[in-house]
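call fold(seq) -> tokens
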Amino acid sequence: MSTTTTENDVQAWLVARIVAYGKKAAGDFSVDTDFSEIGLDSVYALTLCGDIEDEYDIEIDPEIMWDYSTIRTLAARLEELGA
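ret:
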């Protein structure tokens, strides 16, 4: 991924992935909605972690989904990690 990826870019990508999983429509949640409220269970969390690793070429621990449990906080952490 480009070195010019911003936190907003990561947020938009995460929203698109969650919508693609069929969990919610984009307007049904915000970047501050907890993943558990969106309906992301452990299976989807692992899937999302794999997608993040593929998209941004970084390695992450699946526990990141519980440590950073909203799109906003996860995107900020991913940007820190080089996404």
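The chain has a mean pLDDT of 90.
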